[in-house]
User: Fold this.
Amino acid sequence: MCGIVGAVADREVGPILIAGLQALEYRGYDSAGLAVLQGSALERRRTQGKVRELEQLLAAEPAPARIGIAHTRWATHGVPSTRNAHPHVSSDLVSVVHNGIIENHEALRRELQDAGYAFSSETDTEVIAHLVDALQREGLDLVQAVVRATQRLHGAYAIAVLSAREPDRVVGARRGSPLVVGVGLGEHFLGSDVQALLRVTNRFIYLDEGDVVEIRRDGYRIFDADGRPAARDVRETDLTADAVERGEYRHYMLKEIHEQPEAVARTLEGRINGTRILPNVFGVAAETLLGRVRQVHIVACGTSYHAGLVARYWIEALAGLPCSVEVASEYRYRDVVVPADTLFVAVSQSGETADTLAALRAGKAGARYLAALAVCNVPESSLVRESDLVLMTRAGPEIGVASTKAFTTQLAALGLLSLELARLNGIDTARYERLVGELSALPRLVAEALQLEPQIAILAERFVDKQHALFLGRGASYPIAVEAALKLKEISYIHAEAYPAGELKHGPLALVDEHMPVLAVAPNNQLLEKLKSNLEEVRARGGELFVIADQAVDVKLDADRGAVLRLNVGDSLVAPAVFNIPLQLLAYHVAVLKGTDVDQPRNLAKSVTVE
Ligand code: G6P
Assistant:
């Protein structure tokens, strides 16, 4: 999604703005631009394509300055093009970058056209530039103009505004899309994400909904949505720019796949004591609250939704509580029945996904839930701040658009939740202790599963020329098949579907022939014999069959008709999380062989902050 960087300093800001945009590249974008003030002259550079092209343009046509704003755009209104790239400008005086969507932009556009403004782009953003200009012409200063302009906007926005009328400041504002202030010594910054600014500061202010901020070299002022002065805390982050470096790895995705043993270990650390989950894991108020839970509603998007699907199997089987899982974009627009004592669980890596946040707000409205729990990877995110209970995954920054370590740590966190609910609902103690032990073994099992990489790299060659692929699983491994199909689609652009293996003969079997590889996940559990009959159905139709199977599972395939890869996980609670590892590697190696942009797949964004 779009990225914003702004800077006011006593040194040249061009390199700061470019480095900030580069740190945000992982979020996905299609064009980039910046605007600076040289004295009171506004200079703008924009390109379609990558930030390095903007950097080259700036080298060819330098614009040295000490104040500026910059943007990476992910097209929503208007095609990706230089003309639609931000910043947008009004009267050669006001310049704006924007993340989000302005829903009433058409009405505002007509009103501004009637007032004599000519539009030069198809974007919703351009109305903001003209609105601010019009308000400044009425005599308002930049802060007041931005307060009044944002009061007229419906929808979501994070913006940064420059005005040649007040050339020593950048004004920012946010509602529905994140924006932070970076506090430096004699210099201040704006960013849509702290990662944009880690090279220049580790001190941040997380703005509240509706806030407007003015940054100058020597200070900043914050106002609430009504324009009243507001105080917000400055916080120090432990994140460093190095934590988001790619190191020796060819892609962030590969690095993040290999970081999983450590990331899962961090997520479990200090939360399990031998054979017990520690009581304070979900916060002080949690034990009483969780003890009252009679149902669970899990809401999420994308890969996080798939983690929720696995958790449903665990919660129903271990705690005996009804559990539903729904994608946030559906949940938020339907009349959901909320029985008494239901726990709302939002799962999100970023904590800024627009639909998940809206679902949380819809869930909280009317106080129908017992409590809302966020399972999230970003401590300062809106989701965490707005939830009653929080369980942080500790995956560390995830840069690859296709989620890997965030998913595995979500499974670890949801494993903790499932077992805690199981304990509070009277699970047999010996079984509970055995399951806690199985969860604790996850980092080691993930490390072992990573050893399959050389075999997976060979297997990938059998997928690279295919147009389609089918993934099968049963029980808690079915969501793993769904996640595997998503990974392959996202980064290799091969059409992939996942089915519960038992559904095969109700339709997808019609697709199976020598052109359709079928990959099945086969842990050693009570569903194994059923799964094996499903695999026979595939073999009998001449399909190429690949099986990721537990060591103890007896499947044999002719080498020219398929392959079996082995894991040693037994019937462990965490088997789904372990079987997922080779499937992540498969998607990765297929994408590398196809030569796609692994970390920034076409059309996709890391964090979808618009609806
Ligand atoms: C985007 C990303 C996915 C992610 C989903 C939900 O689609 O590309 O990788 O799973 O958003 O994101 P969240 O931050 O809420 O987990």
